[in-house]
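Checklist before submission:
- one chain only
- standard amino acids only
- sequence pasted in full

Submission:
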Amino acid sequence: MKLKTLSVAMILATVPMTGAFAAAMDRTGQSISAFLQPGNYAEAGLSVLDADVSGKDTNGVNTGDMASSYHSASAALKIQATEKISVGLLFDQPFGAKAEYAAGDHAFSFDGEGTSAEVTTENLTLLVGFQPNVNWNFYAGPVWQQAKGEVRLRGSAYSVLGGAGLDNRYNAAMKNDDAWGWAAGFAYQIPEIALKTSLTYRSKIKHNLDSQETFGTSSSQILLPFAPGTAAITQGSTEVETPQSINLDFQSGVAENTIAFANVRWVNWDGFAIRPHAFGQAVDALSLSPANSALNGANLVEYNKDQWTINAGVGRKLTEKWSGTVSVGWDSGAGDPVTTLGPTEGYWSLGLGAQFSPAANYFVQGGVKYFWLGDAQGLTATSDNVGQFKDNHAIGYGLKFGYKF
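Returned file contents:
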Protein backbone atom coordinates (compact mmCIF):
# COMPACT_ATOMS: atom_id res chain seq x y z
CA MET A 1 0.00 0.00 0.00
CA LYS A 2 1.21 3.53 -0.72
CA LEU A 3 1.18 5.88 2.24
CA LYS A 4 2.91 8.94 0.85
CA THR A 5 -0.20 10.96 1.69
CA LEU A 6 0.23 9.95 5.30
CA SER A 7 2.19 13.02 6.35
CA VAL A 8 1.90 11.88 9.98
CA ALA A 9 4.62 9.22 9.74
CA MET A 10 6.27 10.95 12.68
CA ILE A 11 3.16 10.81 14.84
CA LEU A 12 5.05 8.17 16.76
CA ALA A 13 6.54 11.04 18.77
CA THR A 14 3.24 12.63 19.78
CA VAL A 15 3.92 12.36 23.51
CA PRO A 16 7.69 12.62 24.04
CA MET A 17 7.90 11.24 27.58
CA THR A 18 8.40 7.96 29.40
CA GLY A 19 7.44 8.65 33.01
CA ALA A 20 10.11 9.84 35.39
CA PHE A 21 9.11 7.93 38.49
CA ALA A 22 8.70 4.61 36.72
CA ALA A 23 12.27 3.74 35.84
CA ALA A 24 15.01 5.44 37.79
CA MET A 25 15.47 8.98 36.39
CA ASP A 26 14.58 8.42 32.72
CA ARG A 27 12.40 11.26 31.45
CA THR A 28 12.35 11.72 27.68
CA GLY A 29 13.31 8.43 26.05
CA GLN A 30 16.01 10.29 24.05
CA SER A 31 14.29 10.02 20.68
CA ILE A 32 16.14 11.05 17.49
CA SER A 33 12.97 10.92 15.38
CA ALA A 34 13.31 14.58 14.34
CA PHE A 35 16.69 13.84 12.75
CA LEU A 36 15.11 11.14 10.58
CA GLN A 37 12.51 13.47 9.06
CA PRO A 38 12.86 14.02 5.28
CA GLY A 39 14.28 17.32 4.04
CA ASN A 40 14.78 20.31 6.34
CA TYR A 41 12.84 20.18 9.57
CA ALA A 42 12.50 21.95 12.94
CA GLU A 43 10.42 21.22 16.04
CA ALA A 44 9.88 22.33 19.63
CA GLY A 45 8.00 20.47 22.34
CA LEU A 46 7.00 20.55 25.99
CA SER A 47 5.83 17.70 28.20
CA VAL A 48 4.46 17.75 31.74
CA LEU A 49 4.18 14.86 34.19
CA ASP A 50 1.80 15.09 37.14
CA ALA A 51 2.39 12.10 39.41
CA ASP A 52 0.65 11.04 42.62
CA VAL A 53 2.99 8.84 44.68
CA SER A 54 2.41 8.08 48.35
CA GLY A 55 3.05 5.29 50.80
CA LYS A 56 3.46 4.36 54.45
CA ASP A 57 6.63 4.29 56.52
CA THR A 58 7.55 1.30 58.70
CA ASN A 59 5.31 2.65 61.48
CA GLY A 60 2.31 2.70 59.15
CA VAL A 61 2.21 6.51 58.91
CA ASN A 62 1.10 7.88 55.53
CA THR A 63 3.74 9.94 53.72
CA GLY A 64 1.32 12.00 51.66
CA ASP A 65 2.03 12.72 47.98
CA MET A 66 5.81 13.06 47.53
CA ALA A 67 5.91 13.37 43.73
CA SER A 68 6.30 16.93 42.51
CA SER A 69 5.09 17.61 38.98
CA TYR A 70 7.70 18.68 36.44
CA HIS A 71 8.01 19.79 32.85
CA SER A 72 10.56 18.86 30.19
CA ALA A 73 11.42 20.83 27.05
CA SER A 74 12.79 19.56 23.75
CA ALA A 75 13.83 21.08 20.42
CA ALA A 76 15.46 19.93 17.20
CA LEU A 77 16.80 21.27 13.93
CA LYS A 78 17.64 19.01 10.98
CA ILE A 79 19.26 20.22 7.74
CA GLN A 80 19.61 18.12 4.59
CA ALA A 81 22.90 19.70 3.56
CA THR A 82 23.31 17.61 0.38
CA GLU A 83 21.56 14.66 -1.19
CA LYS A 84 23.67 12.29 0.92
CA ILE A 85 24.65 14.35 4.00
CA SER A 86 22.36 15.55 6.79
CA VAL A 87 23.10 17.41 10.03
CA GLY A 88 20.94 17.55 13.15
CA LEU A 89 21.05 19.36 16.50
CA LEU A 90 18.81 17.90 19.22
CA PHE A 91 18.08 19.32 22.69
CA ASP A 92 16.37 17.45 25.50
CA GLN A 93 16.41 16.96 29.29
CA PRO A 94 16.85 13.19 29.47
CA PHE A 95 17.40 12.36 33.14
CA GLY A 96 16.06 13.90 36.31
CA ALA A 97 14.16 13.56 39.56
CA LYS A 98 11.92 15.81 41.62
CA ALA A 99 10.62 14.71 45.00
CA GLU A 100 9.23 16.54 48.01
CA TYR A 101 7.85 14.97 51.19
CA ALA A 102 5.61 17.30 53.17
CA ALA A 103 6.45 17.92 56.82
CA GLY A 104 4.61 15.56 59.16
CA ASP A 105 4.96 12.72 61.64
CA HIS A 106 6.31 10.22 59.11
CA ALA A 107 9.90 8.95 58.84
CA PHE A 108 10.77 11.33 55.96
CA SER A 109 10.30 14.52 57.98
CA PHE A 110 11.97 16.16 60.97
CA ASP A 111 11.32 19.31 62.98
CA GLY A 112 8.87 20.83 60.51
CA GLU A 113 10.92 20.02 57.41
CA GLY A 114 10.40 17.30 54.81
CA THR A 115 12.83 15.46 52.57
CA SER A 116 13.24 16.87 49.07
CA ALA A 117 15.45 16.35 46.03
CA GLU A 118 15.85 17.64 42.49
CA VAL A 119 18.21 16.39 39.77
CA THR A 120 18.30 17.87 36.27
CA THR A 121 20.25 17.20 33.08
CA GLU A 122 20.34 18.91 29.70
CA ASN A 123 21.63 17.37 26.47
CA LEU A 124 22.75 18.76 23.12
CA THR A 125 23.33 16.07 20.50
CA LEU A 126 24.98 16.86 17.17
CA LEU A 127 24.41 14.16 14.56
CA VAL A 128 25.87 13.91 11.07
CA GLY A 129 24.21 11.40 8.78
CA PHE A 130 25.32 9.75 5.57
CA GLN A 131 22.63 8.44 3.20
CA PRO A 132 24.24 6.32 0.45
CA ASN A 133 20.78 5.78 -1.05
CA VAL A 134 17.12 6.43 -0.27
CA ASN A 135 16.92 3.44 2.07
CA TRP A 136 19.91 3.72 4.42
CA ASN A 137 21.08 6.38 6.87
CA PHE A 138 24.23 6.01 9.01
CA TYR A 139 24.75 8.66 11.69
CA ALA A 140 26.99 9.57 14.63
CA GLY A 141 28.09 12.57 16.64
CA PRO A 142 29.07 14.08 20.00
CA VAL A 143 26.75 14.66 22.95
CA TRP A 144 27.23 17.52 25.42
CA GLN A 145 25.52 17.07 28.78
CA GLN A 146 25.09 19.32 31.80
CA ALA A 147 24.03 17.91 35.18
CA LYS A 148 23.30 19.28 38.65
CA GLY A 149 21.43 18.22 41.77
CA GLU A 150 20.25 19.21 45.21
CA VAL A 151 18.99 17.05 48.06
CA ARG A 152 17.73 17.56 51.61
CA LEU A 153 17.28 14.49 53.81
CA ARG A 154 15.12 14.72 56.93
CA GLY A 155 13.79 12.16 59.37
CA SER A 156 14.59 8.79 60.90
CA ALA A 157 14.52 7.03 57.50
CA TYR A 158 17.89 8.66 56.76
CA SER A 159 19.66 8.01 60.05
CA VAL A 160 23.14 8.22 58.58
CA LEU A 161 24.59 9.50 61.86
CA GLY A 162 23.28 6.99 64.26
CA GLY A 163 19.60 6.32 64.94
CA ALA A 164 15.96 7.32 64.83
CA GLY A 165 15.05 10.57 66.50
CA LEU A 166 18.41 12.30 66.02
CA ASP A 167 18.76 15.66 64.33
CA ASN A 168 20.00 14.07 61.12
CA ARG A 169 19.63 17.01 58.78
CA TYR A 170 21.69 16.47 55.65
CA ASN A 171 21.93 18.80 52.65
CA ALA A 172 23.90 18.41 49.45
CA ALA A 173 24.21 20.93 46.63
CA MET A 174 25.91 19.50 43.52
CA LYS A 175 26.87 22.28 41.11
CA ASN A 176 26.56 22.29 37.33
CA ASP A 177 29.05 20.08 35.53
CA ASP A 178 29.61 19.76 31.77
CA ALA A 179 30.76 16.50 30.18
CA TRP A 180 30.85 14.80 26.78
CA GLY A 181 29.63 11.53 25.33
CA TRP A 182 28.63 10.26 21.91
CA ALA A 183 25.78 8.70 19.95
CA ALA A 184 25.70 6.55 16.82
CA GLY A 185 23.26 4.42 14.87
CA PHE A 186 21.63 3.59 11.58
CA ALA A 187 18.18 3.70 10.01
CA TYR A 188 16.48 1.85 7.17
CA GLN A 189 13.35 2.96 5.38
CA ILE A 190 11.03 2.17 2.48
CA PRO A 191 9.11 5.44 2.01
CA GLU A 192 6.44 3.96 -0.27
CA ILE A 193 5.00 1.86 2.56
CA ALA A 194 5.95 4.20 5.44
CA LEU A 195 8.40 1.60 6.77
CA LYS A 196 11.13 3.06 8.94
CA THR A 197 13.35 1.42 11.54
CA SER A 198 16.33 2.75 13.47
CA LEU A 199 18.80 1.58 16.09
CA THR A 200 20.59 4.21 18.18
CA TYR A 201 23.26 3.83 20.87
CA ARG A 202 24.16 6.53 23.41
CA SER A 203 27.29 6.30 25.54
CA LYS A 204 27.75 6.77 29.27
CA ILE A 205 28.68 10.30 30.35
CA LYS A 206 30.84 10.80 33.44
CA HIS A 207 30.45 13.87 35.68
CA ASN A 208 32.44 15.17 38.63
CA LEU A 209 30.16 17.64 40.40
CA ASP A 210 31.60 20.12 42.90
CA SER A 211 29.51 19.48 46.01
CA GLN A 212 28.78 21.23 49.28
CA GLU A 213 27.44 18.94 52.00
CA THR A 214 25.99 20.05 55.31
CA PHE A 215 25.38 17.81 58.31
CA GLY A 216 23.40 18.96 61.34
CA THR A 217 23.57 16.67 64.39
CA SER A 218 22.43 16.25 67.95
CA SER A 219 24.40 15.42 71.10
CA SER A 220 24.69 11.83 69.85
CA GLN A 221 27.07 12.83 67.05
CA ILE A 222 29.77 10.18 66.83
CA LEU A 223 31.09 10.07 63.29
CA LEU A 224 32.27 13.42 62.01
CA PRO A 225 34.81 15.82 63.56
CA PHE A 226 32.61 18.70 64.65
CA ALA A 227 30.85 19.72 67.84
CA PRO A 228 27.49 18.11 68.73
CA GLY A 229 24.50 20.34 68.09
CA THR A 230 26.21 22.27 65.29
CA ALA A 231 26.38 22.00 61.53
CA ALA A 232 29.39 20.84 59.55
CA ILE A 233 29.96 22.02 56.00
CA THR A 234 32.26 20.03 53.73
CA GLN A 235 33.40 20.62 50.16
CA GLY A 236 34.17 17.76 47.82
CA SER A 237 33.38 16.09 44.51
CA THR A 238 30.53 13.73 43.61
CA GLU A 239 31.11 11.35 40.73
CA VAL A 240 27.98 10.52 38.72
CA GLU A 241 27.87 8.55 35.47
CA THR A 242 24.65 8.86 33.48
CA PRO A 243 23.85 5.52 31.81
CA GLN A 244 24.37 4.20 28.32
CA SER A 245 21.24 3.29 26.35
CA ILE A 246 19.94 1.71 23.16
CA ASN A 247 16.74 2.68 21.32
CA LEU A 248 15.09 0.50 18.68
CA ASP A 249 12.28 2.21 16.74
CA PHE A 250 10.02 0.67 14.14
CA GLN A 251 7.01 1.78 12.12
CA SER A 252 5.25 0.45 9.02
CA GLY A 253 2.11 0.95 7.04
CA VAL A 254 -0.48 -1.73 7.80
CA ALA A 255 -3.45 -0.35 5.83
CA GLU A 256 -4.30 2.70 3.79
CA ASN A 257 -3.57 5.81 5.90
CA THR A 258 -2.71 3.63 8.91
CA ILE A 259 0.65 2.83 10.49
CA ALA A 260 1.74 0.62 13.37
CA PHE A 261 4.71 1.66 15.50
CA ALA A 262 6.82 0.34 18.35
CA ASN A 263 9.76 1.50 20.44
CA VAL A 264 12.02 -0.66 22.62
CA ARG A 265 14.44 1.12 24.96
CA TRP A 266 17.19 -0.32 27.16
CA VAL A 267 18.93 1.81 29.79
CA ASN A 268 21.92 0.50 31.76
CA TRP A 269 20.87 1.58 35.27
CA ASP A 270 22.37 -1.48 36.97
CA GLY A 271 25.25 -0.20 39.12
CA PHE A 272 24.23 3.47 38.90
CA ALA A 273 24.94 5.34 42.14
CA ILE A 274 25.13 8.85 43.59
CA ARG A 275 27.52 8.93 46.56
CA PRO A 276 28.61 12.38 47.77
CA HIS A 277 32.03 12.26 49.44
CA ALA A 278 31.20 13.15 53.07
CA PHE A 279 27.93 11.22 52.96
CA GLY A 280 29.85 8.14 51.84
CA GLN A 281 32.39 8.60 54.64
CA ALA A 282 29.58 8.79 57.20
CA VAL A 283 27.89 5.62 55.94
CA ASP A 284 31.20 3.77 55.75
CA ALA A 285 31.98 4.75 59.36
CA LEU A 286 28.55 3.58 60.46
CA SER A 287 29.10 0.29 58.64
CA LEU A 288 32.14 -0.45 60.82
CA SER A 289 29.77 -1.30 63.65
CA PRO A 290 29.09 -5.08 63.69
CA ALA A 291 25.37 -4.37 63.94
CA ASN A 292 25.51 -2.44 60.69
CA SER A 293 28.09 -4.45 58.74
CA ALA A 294 25.67 -4.96 55.83
CA LEU A 295 25.69 -1.20 55.11
CA ASN A 296 29.21 -1.10 53.69
CA GLY A 297 29.13 0.48 50.24
CA ALA A 298 25.66 2.05 50.60
CA ASN A 299 24.85 5.12 48.44
CA LEU A 300 22.62 8.15 48.59
CA VAL A 301 20.88 6.90 45.42
CA GLU A 302 21.40 3.57 43.68
CA TYR A 303 19.72 1.27 41.14
CA ASN A 304 20.35 -2.45 40.76
CA LYS A 305 18.56 -3.43 37.54
CA ASP A 306 18.58 -2.30 33.92
CA GLN A 307 15.45 -0.64 32.57
CA TRP A 308 13.46 -2.01 29.63
CA THR A 309 10.64 0.05 28.11
CA ILE A 310 8.25 -0.96 25.32
CA ASN A 311 5.71 1.35 23.69
CA ALA A 312 3.52 0.27 20.77
CA GLY A 313 0.44 1.54 18.99
CA VAL A 314 -1.24 2.63 15.79
CA GLY A 315 -1.59 5.97 14.03
CA ARG A 316 -4.26 6.83 11.49
CA LYS A 317 -4.94 9.73 9.18
CA LEU A 318 -8.56 10.73 9.86
CA THR A 319 -8.95 13.65 7.43
CA GLU A 320 -6.63 15.76 5.27
CA LYS A 321 -5.75 17.81 8.38
CA TRP A 322 -6.33 15.50 11.34
CA SER A 323 -4.72 12.26 12.49
CA GLY A 324 -4.56 10.38 15.78
CA THR A 325 -2.76 7.66 17.71
CA VAL A 326 -3.44 5.11 20.41
CA SER A 327 -0.53 3.52 22.29
CA VAL A 328 0.17 1.19 25.19
CA GLY A 329 3.39 0.98 27.17
CA TRP A 330 5.24 -1.15 29.70
CA ASP A 331 8.32 -0.38 31.76
CA SER A 332 10.34 -2.84 33.85
CA GLY A 333 11.58 -0.34 36.43
CA ALA A 334 15.15 -0.32 37.77
CA GLY A 335 14.93 -2.63 40.77
CA ASP A 336 12.99 -3.08 43.99
CA PRO A 337 13.65 -1.90 46.67
CA VAL A 338 14.32 1.48 45.11
CA THR A 339 15.37 4.91 46.37
CA THR A 340 12.79 6.86 48.39
CA LEU A 341 13.44 9.82 46.05
CA GLY A 342 11.49 7.95 43.35
CA PRO A 343 9.74 4.97 44.98
CA THR A 344 7.94 3.23 42.11
CA GLU A 345 8.78 0.10 40.14
CA GLY A 346 7.92 0.34 36.45
CA TYR A 347 4.53 1.06 34.91
CA TRP A 348 1.81 0.24 32.43
CA SER A 349 0.52 3.13 30.32
CA LEU A 350 -2.21 4.09 27.87
CA GLY A 351 -1.78 7.08 25.55
CA LEU A 352 -3.92 9.08 23.13
CA GLY A 353 -2.55 11.62 20.66
CA ALA A 354 -3.75 13.92 17.91
CA GLN A 355 -2.10 15.93 15.15
CA PHE A 356 -3.50 18.94 13.31
CA SER A 357 -1.83 19.95 10.03
CA PRO A 358 -3.22 23.27 8.73
CA ALA A 359 -0.80 23.06 5.78
CA ALA A 360 1.51 20.45 4.33
CA ASN A 361 4.64 22.01 5.86
CA TYR A 362 3.69 22.41 9.54
CA PHE A 363 1.67 20.72 12.27
CA VAL A 364 0.72 20.77 15.94
CA GLN A 365 0.70 17.59 18.03
CA GLY A 366 -0.82 17.00 21.45
CA GLY A 367 -1.27 13.96 23.62
CA VAL A 368 -2.01 12.54 27.04
CA LYS A 369 -0.79 9.39 28.80
CA TYR A 370 -2.03 7.70 31.94
CA PHE A 371 0.49 5.66 33.95
CA TRP A 372 -0.28 2.87 36.41
CA LEU A 373 2.87 2.97 38.54
CA GLY A 374 4.26 -0.22 40.07
CA ASP A 375 4.44 -0.83 43.83
CA ALA A 376 7.85 -0.48 45.48
CA GLN A 377 9.70 -0.78 48.75
CA GLY A 378 11.65 2.30 49.88
CA LEU A 379 15.47 2.09 50.09
CA THR A 380 17.97 4.40 51.84
CA ALA A 381 21.69 4.21 52.52
CA THR A 382 21.07 2.62 55.92
CA SER A 383 18.03 0.42 55.27
CA ASP A 384 16.41 -1.46 52.40
CA ASN A 385 12.93 -1.14 53.91
CA VAL A 386 11.82 2.26 55.17
CA GLY A 387 8.36 2.26 53.62
CA GLN A 388 5.89 0.70 51.21
CA PHE A 389 4.53 2.68 48.24
CA LYS A 390 1.46 1.21 46.54
CA ASP A 391 -1.44 2.00 44.16
CA ASN A 392 0.13 5.09 42.59
CA HIS A 393 -0.41 6.74 39.21
CA ALA A 394 0.62 9.63 36.96
CA ILE A 395 -0.74 11.63 34.02
CA GLY A 396 1.50 13.03 31.30
CA TYR A 397 0.70 15.74 28.76
CA GLY A 398 2.65 16.66 25.63
CA LEU A 399 2.57 19.44 23.03
CA LYS A 400 4.80 19.75 19.96
CA PHE A 401 5.13 22.08 16.97
CA GLY A 402 6.82 20.88 13.77
CA TYR A 403 7.81 22.77 10.61
CA LYS A 404 9.23 21.52 7.29
CA PHE A 405 11.14 23.98 5.11
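Reviewer check: Helices lie at 277-287.
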